[in-house]
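Backbone-to-sequence.
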């Protein structure tokens, strides 16, 4: 039995957009051609809560049939906005109204950005940079903040932190080369190459200088951005970072690549969870339940990262070595991590902080590689305050 929970969304068209198609259900392939502003009322399915699940409604700039590739200029103005909750379809007013079911994101092909139901849904574009098409999302307003995520992870993984940062900054969340909606050319990649990707993204967005936050692989890309394009980096936060890999690190990355190539997606996710989380996270019931949901999501992910792309990103992590160059970094830097990190042990963060002139260092007790989630209540305000000061 379906609950009587209805949610309104309005679609706004601007510019020379001729029409919009909306994907409501991947399995049934419903495509709706819209040539005027329209309101969409969607009913929640029984068993799914809009407050606890992630959902998609995907606007396209071209009318299309099932199986066709989306075409059009995705940087122009169409957006879907949550409006209010009603008790029944009878509450709807106006001529252009469509009724449909609201499905969980795991059932859909994740082509575009999603956000929480209380926020706007916007199509985010690709830009041509350094020989690839790079996908990015924007959230918030203010001075620009470039957010660079780690291996296997698209920019949307920043969500728990972007919710805090977007209140003060224009957050640019990129999908790194090799993951998400960005191009995935054959490897190997290097951190210098990936830093140039972000330099090109900044140029295309007209951003002369920005604060930068990088996590894991993203942190070493941020190092290279500061070294290769020093005028572009105002300050940076390096999360679970390193200046070089040792033999243990080499073994870790090699094993991670083998796991990706040989394991089912949910088994690979389980290994990653074991690598990045510590005992307090496992012992917390809510965290444990989120981990189990992560395994289910991995099992049914319609677009997992290809093996070759993960290996290419790992090659960048392994080959990264800036130990003798970090003394040349001029911007203020916060190095932050977890004392119990087994993936990038704390000596790596300490070595980076020691090599960077005037760097700040903070390491959390009882936290691992995913310290930023394990210590979210402190991490978000701490990093926000630091960014505002630097």
């Amino acid at each position: 039995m379906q609950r009587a929970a209805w949610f309104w969304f309005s679609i706004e068209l601007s510019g020379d957009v001729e029409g919009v198609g909306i994907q409501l259900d991947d399995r049934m392939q419903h495509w709706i051609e819209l040539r005027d502003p329209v309101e969409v009322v969607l009913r929640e399915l029984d068993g799914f809560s809009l407050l606890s699940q992630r959902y998609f409604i995907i606007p396209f700039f071209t009318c299309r049939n099932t199986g066709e590739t989306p075409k059009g200029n995705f940087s122009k103005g169409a957006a879907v906005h949550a409006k209010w909750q009603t008790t029944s379809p009878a509450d709807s007013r106006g001529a252009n109204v469509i009724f449909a079911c609201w499905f969980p994101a795991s059932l859909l092909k994740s082509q575009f950005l999603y956000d929480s139901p209380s926020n706007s849904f916007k199509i985010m574009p690709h830009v041509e940079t350094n020989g690839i098409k790079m996908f990015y999302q924007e959230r918030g307003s203010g001075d620009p903040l470039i957010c660079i995520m780690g291996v296997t992870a698209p920019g949307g993984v920043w969500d728990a932190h972007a919710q805090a940062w977007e209140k003060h900054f224009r957050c640019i969340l990129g999908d790194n080369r090799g993951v998400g909606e960005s191009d995935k050319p054959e490897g190997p990649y290097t951190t210098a190459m990936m830093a140039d990707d972000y330099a090109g993204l900044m140029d295309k967005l007209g951003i002369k200088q920005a604060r930068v936050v990088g996590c894991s692989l993203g942190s070493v890309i941020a190092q290279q951005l500061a070294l290769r394009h020093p005028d572009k980096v105002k300050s940076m936060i390096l999360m679970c970072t390193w200046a070089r890999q040792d033999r243990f690190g080499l073994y870790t990355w090699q094993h991670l690549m083998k796991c990706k190539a040989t394991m089912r997606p949910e088994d690979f996710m389980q290994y990653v969870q074991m690598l990045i989380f510590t005992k307090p996270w496992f012992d917390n019931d809510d965290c444990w339940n989120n981990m189990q949901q992560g395994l289910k999501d991995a099992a049914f992910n319609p677009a997992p990262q290809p093996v070759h792309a993960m290996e290419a990103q790992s090659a960048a992590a392994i080959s990264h070595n800036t130990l003798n160059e970090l003394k040349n970094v001029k911007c203020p830097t916060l190095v932050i991590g977890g004392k119990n990190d087994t993936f990038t042990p704390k000596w790596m963060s300490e070595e980076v902080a020691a090599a960077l002139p005037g760097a700040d260092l903070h390491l959390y007790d009882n936290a691992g590689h995913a310290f930023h989630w394990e210590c979210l209540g402190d991490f978000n305000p701490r990093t926000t305050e630091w960014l505002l000061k630097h």
